[in-house]
Specification:
The structure is a homodimer of 240-residue chains.
Chain A (H helix, E strand, L loop, with lengths): L10 H7 L15 H15 L6 H7 L4 H4 L6 H13 L11 H18 L3 H4 L8 H13 L7 H25 L5 H15 L5 H8 L7 H22 L2
Helix pairs in contact in A: 1-5, 2-3, 2-5, 6-8, 6-9, 6-12, 9-12
The structure holds a DNA duplex (30 and 30 nucleotides).
DNA sequence: ACATTGCTGTGTACGGTAGACACAGTTGAT
DNA sequence: ATCAACTGTGTCTACCGTACACAGCAATGT
């Protein structure tokens, strides 16, 4: 009774989930989804998602932009493909171990994936269909929480919570930028603005003025979330 | 010794932080930053950030697109203005009360603001300068954590954690969409895909198959985060 | 009073984007 | 050998951001 997947004629679902599909008749395709996505990823990694255009990607492969439309229905689907390939699958989950260690590793690995391709942040805002690889990340975190007294909805909510934290951290890291980068300059300006308007932002000015700020945001938030989850799990498993 | 704010000739900082600045000589400007930003917000609310173009915004005000460039250096700055106006200031913080209540109210109010203008998600990925209103939100959450034994960096990290959660929740809500919306259709398709590939995603299929999923994701994550923060604060205040 | 100067809004032009469509050439099936 | 399906290309449209020159208006300096 579930909706037929192939019915909505959604191009994206066929691209991401459909079979390789080779009902060959004419000349063999010279390109492939893999190569096209890889070219797009190359551009996005180097210059950001904004620099990814059909022209750019096609040029990198020494083809015309219109050739790409033989493989991909449009730019949105190209980006979806790029996301699916860039996010890859999650590393294999350890077979055993505490759920807390599983989730910690998961968060660190997802952070690495997003840090390697910061444009994933831009490409994954907004409603869209997830691909097999992306879903595998979700599967791993939900599976790590199996059998600890949480409802299905709660396990999903926990996944959203963790993924949201990773996104926030990567976004913050990108906003900070590398030493001497234009992004770092932005932060400096912001800091100066806060000090300059210290009357309006006393708590902020005080917090930023304190020394000893190592970059612990990922671990800090992760520890809080996991502590909170542990408290809930303890309560649930104490009195079934 | 702090970097001079006005020095980098950054247009955005002058727009967001600069004085109204009226060194009038020629004809009085017919438009205003407020009206332009409001027009942009109107378009974005109705059709998304992607539909915001100089033409659209200018047309809504019955002016040519080039007229906008007399007020705003470029589209990026227009969007920054839209963000600053759309996010408004945070509602006044309650004068007293437990930090937990403060943060809960803050998160709910920020969620409301983002839900009212979902395009804020798109407009606030990527490195950028924050405006006075946006900074006021940050100030309120950091201030709520004052005097509970957390370091300045930890208070900032907590703010990032909470803001990231709100963003994640709003993003998820937007991805789900309204009843019968195209976004909701996307979710249905995804659900069907998970069931169809249940062998590859057993935990996910099981979690989604469980009944009784009311929309509690915001409160669930918030409760975990606040529990985790409470545990840390208890530890800190127990042994000073 | 008047010329000067600075500002406003407009029109035009340029290079970029995504994509529709027609076409020539290549290939496998009949 | 014929035909049908497919690939890659060239051309075209519509729209985007924005640089630039220009005409008109308003306040300033004389």
């Amino acid at each position: 009774m579930a909706a037929d997947v192939d019915e909505p004629a959604n191009d994206t679902v066929r691209l991401l989930w459909g079979p390789p599909a080779r009902p060959t008749r004419g000349p063999k395709p010279a390109l492939s989804l893999e190569r096209i996505a890889a070219a797009g990823i190359e551009v996005a990694d180097a210059e950001g998602l904004g620099s990814v255009s059909m022209q750019r990607v096609a040029g990198l492969l020494d083809y015309t932009k219109m050739a790409l439309y033989r493989y991909v229905p449009g730019k949105a689907e190209l980006v979806a493909l790029m996301v699916e390939f860039a996010v890859a699958g999650p590393p294999a989950a350890p077979a055993d171990g505490h759920w807390r260690d599983h989730l910690t590793a998961w968060a660190r690995e997802l952070t690495q994936a997003f840090t390697a391709h910061p444009w994933l942040l831009d490409a994954t805002v907004g409603p869209r269909l997830m691909g097999p690889n992306e879903l595998a990340w979700l599967e791993r975190v939900v599976s790590a929480l199996d059998g600890h007294g949480l409802t299905g909805a709660e396990r999903m909510d926990a996944a959203v919570l963790l993924a949201g934290h990773v996104r926030g951290i990567v976004q913050q890291a990108r906003a900070a930028g590398a030493e001497g980068s234009p992004e770092a300059r932005l932060l400096t300006v912001l800091g100066a603005l806060v000090q300059q308007h210290a009357e309006d932002y006393p708590a902020l000015a005080a917090a930023m003025a304190e020394p000893g700020g190592r970059d612990n945001a990922l671990d800090f938030g992760l520890a809080r979330i996991l502590d909170g989850l542990a408290a809930l799990i303890d309560r649930r498993t104490a009195r079934p």
